[in-house]
Amino acid sequence: MTSFIDKLAWVYLVDRQVLCARSRGKDTYYLPGGKREGAETDQEALSREVREELGIELIPETITYFGQFSAQAHGKAEGTVVQMTCYTGQFRGEIQALAEVEEVAWLQYKDKTKVSQVTQQIFEHLKEQGLLA
């Protein structure tokens, strides 16, 4: 039986590198974001998660749908699929590692073995679009 994990992610690119985060005590990087709480919209949940993880404020009018990706969830039982709805957007503030985030890093396509399966799919898409070095 397949179970689904519904997540939101922020795709932020600078100089053909994508911003990723690594949680405390983990060795896998992921795109900043997380799960909805209650009746939050995608934009509300994404903004809250990014604020909690990175200490920045996404600018609501710049948040744009990027795509949806799914794969086996990292570290979960076989058949547990994470569905990642991704958005881009500009922000105010200075990026820093907060809450469960131990490290933020700028990754390139060559780093795709350091990220979860669903993030690898996003890396493939970014590379195909010429957006990731």
TrEMBL record:
CDD domains: NUDIX_Hydrolase. Its cofactor is Mg(2+). InterPro entries: NUDIX_hydrolase-like_dom_sf, NUDIX_hydrolase_CS, NUDIX_hydrolase_dom. Pfam families: NUDIX (PF00293). One of its GO terms (molecular function) is metal ion binding. Residues 1-131 form the Nudix hydrolase domain. Coiled coil: none annotated. GO terms for biological process: DNA protection. One of its GO terms (cellular component) is cytoplasm. It comes from the Bacteria. Keywords: Hydrolase, Magnesium, Metal-binding. PANTHER family: 7,8-DIHYDRO-8-OXOGUANINE TRIPHOSPHATASE (PTHR43758), OXIDIZED PURINE NUCLEOSIDE TRIPHOSPHATE HYDROLASE (PTHR43758:SF2). Belongs to the Nudix hydrolase family. This is NUDIX domain-containing protein.
